From TrEMBL:
Keyword Transmembrane helix assigned: yes
Family: Belongs to the protein disulfide isomerase family.
Source organism phylogeny: Eukaryota, Viridiplantae, Streptophyta, Embryophyta, Tracheophyta
The protein, known as: Thioredoxin domain-containing protein
Pfam families: Thioredoxin, Thioredoxin_6
Species of origin: Carya illinoinensis (Pecan)
Length: 419
């Protein structure tokens, strides 16, 4: 625990590389003392919280040693309930990074080394100025794989500074002033100025040669915040929330199968020619709860393509309800043409079960409590010889039980929380 001293009756917090324990007496002081502080709102009984704790302990001294230190702290939200309520904590663990006192929910990786790389993004310069080939390589290496990278070759810093501030939390920005022809070959551009976008984890690169007015630069930046074909999972769904483009969603049985990988490559080609749309894919095996909302079940012929608005509605294209193995590139093209020509059927995604809906509002612990109360009431009424209380239809109850079972068995990953 970070030592806390007192001068004139006021607590003084010092960052010595250990995780700071906060409560209602020192929370506000900590937030005002440190420009950047990552706070873990946890519960002692929470299994995910217990697994996260050593990762935070490992990351804390590295982050505290940065030129712009980032302090890690934790709050027992199960004990200090008023503090948890004040910051809208309804699940554990919840991580929030306070930047100059302003909280932002943290949804990045939770392994110590990856967490450090991710958080460095918040304290670096808006635009890094690179003056050599080695500086470019070092910048790309340090940036890691969790954000897209933009390098302006032969561009002035002022040309992208405003956009770098606007998209600071979503991408790395730099300008390279001195570089060799080898770099030009390596990054596949043949003239300057040029803005290169990189997605290291997806091995993707795109080049922009202008015009360099801000509106065109921003359009290029926005379109390249995501890979050409983005895997749909809880983390990427969060990143897509602010993008208002329609999503061409392809549902496959298993993302890792070779036949699915071939489809993904075809989707990338289609995405290059249709930048006004986002192309995504999801495997039933990887994210069954999500695919179920589009009516996918064991009888559904896969792959299946739809156009989703990111909210409650999606479109099926007449004649393109499923995709067959022969000439899939042509089938994808026909699907897009059918969508653009309006040969579509509007449908609504399937709503959550009653239990899932309650869970989204109040958290899993409260759900368990409500279920317990319902069971007790049913038991009492049964003993009295009355008709048992029923909640929803039989299908809803079965679906609710399934939802609880899946929630309990779900493997922990970045962004996961339990209440």
């Amino acid at each position: 625990m970070i030592p806390i001293s007192s001068v004139g009756g006021e607590q003084l917090l010092t960052a010595n590389g250990k995780v700071l324990e906060l409560d209602e007496s020192n929370f506000d002081s900590a937030i005002s003392t440190f420009d950047f502080i990552l706070v873990d709102f946890y519960a002692p009984w929470c299994g995910h919280c217990k697994r996260l704790s050593p990762q935070l302990d490992e990351a804390a001294p590295i982050l505290a040693s940065l030129k712009e230190p980032i302090v890690i702290a934790k709050v027992n939200a199960d004990k200090y309930t008023r503090l948890a309520k004040k910051h809208d904590i309804d699940a554990y663990p919840t991580l929030k990074i306070f930047m100059h006192g302003v909280p932002v929910e943290y949804n990045g990786p939770r392994k110590a080394d990856l967490l450090v790389r991710y958080l460095k993004k918040f304290v670096t310069s808006d635009v890094s100025v690179l003056d050599s080939d080695s500086a470019i390589s070092d910048f790309v290496e340090a940036a890691g794989a969790f954000f897209p990278i933009y390098i302006g070759f032969g561009m002035k810093e002022s040309m992208i500074s405003n956009l770098a501030v606007k998209y600071k939390k979503k991408a790395w920005f730099s300008v390279a002033k001195d570089f060799s022809e080898d770099i030009m070959v390596s990054y596949d551009f043949d003239k300057v100025p040029a803005l290169v976008s990189l997605h290291p984890v997806y091995n993707e690169r795109n080049i922009f040669y202008g015009p360099f007015e801000e509106e065109f630069l921003e359009e290029f930046i926005k379109q390249n915040l995501f890979p050409l074909a983005i895997p749909i999972n809880p983390d990427t769904l969060k990143s897509l929330e602010e993008d208002r483009r329609k999503i061409v969603l392809t549902i496959v049985e298993d993302e890792t199968e070779e036949k699915s990988k071939k489809i993904i490559e075809l989707l990338k080609a289609a995405a290059s020619a249709n930048r006004d749309l986002v192309f995504g894919y999801v495997g039933v095996k990887q994210y069954e709860d999500f695919t179920d909302t589009f009516g996918v079940n064991k009888k559904t012929v896969l792959p299946k393509m739809v156009v989703w608005d990111g909210d409650e509605e999606y479109l099926s294209v007449f004649g393109s309800e499923t995709m067959y193995e022969e000439d899939q590139a042509t089938q994808i093209s026909r699907f897009i043409i059918g969508y653009r020509e309006g040969r579509t059927l509007k449908e609504r995604i399937r709503g959550p079960s009653l239990l899932g809906y309650i869970n989204s509002l109040v958290g899993i612990n409260t759900v368990y409590m409500l279920v317990f109360v319902v069971v007790v009431v049913m038991l009492i009424q049964t003993i009295k010889g009355e008709e048992p209380l029923r909640v929803g239809t039989g299908d809803q109850v079965d679906h609710a039980r399934s939802s609880v079972s899946e929630a309990e068995s779900r493997e922990y990953g970045p962004g996961d929380k339990v209440d």
